[in-house]
Specification:
- The protein has about 180 residues and is an alpha+beta fold.
- It has two helices and five strands; from the N terminus they run E-E-H-H-E-E-E.
- The protein has helices at about 70-90, 95-115; strands spanning about 5-15, 20-65, 120-155, 155-160, 170-180.
- Strands 1, 2, 3, 4 and 5 form a five-stranded antiparallel sheet that branches.
- Helix 1 (about 70-90) runs antiparallel to helix 2.
- It is rod-shaped.
- The two termini are about 35 Å apart.
Length: about 180
Amino acid sequence: MFKAIYFSVAVFLIISSGSVSATTSYETVLGEVISVIERTREVIRQTPLTERVCEDKDVPVYGSNGQQKNDLGSMIIGGIIGSAIGNKMSDSEGAGAAGTVAGAIIGKTTADEANKKSQEIIGYNRTRSCENVKTVTHQTIQEVIGYRLTINVDGKIIDIDTQTKYLPGSQITVTKTVNYSVQ
């Protein structure tokens, strides 16, 4: 069942007490795979993921309570006050006009703020808002780093680690090393 090809190589060792002759032989023999076990290690795989997340929100709807401030009236009053202040603060020409413009702007802003405060919530609109959220998933996996073969060779059962996967029952060649030396 087993075929063997024999060859040998002579190796000479020099030891401090003198020369000793040694022989090492290498034999290529055929073996049969009995079992195969995967050798693995744990690896953490990180995978980037973009997920669309949506949520429904209630957005308030504002309405007037009927007491709105008059924008035009506020602008006119602000303009008159601004013109008077501009004329009193400066003797230069045009100061009253600049004060009128500034007063009109301030009067309009004041009226807008007052109108906002006089509004109240009269209802809600349900709206859907979505955004893309980037995450990284972590997954622990078993990575195959090799195989442990149990082999019947020369009537002996041996284990050998390899990177190649074999199937049970496969015939494979195995190099057997025999070393002879005098002690």
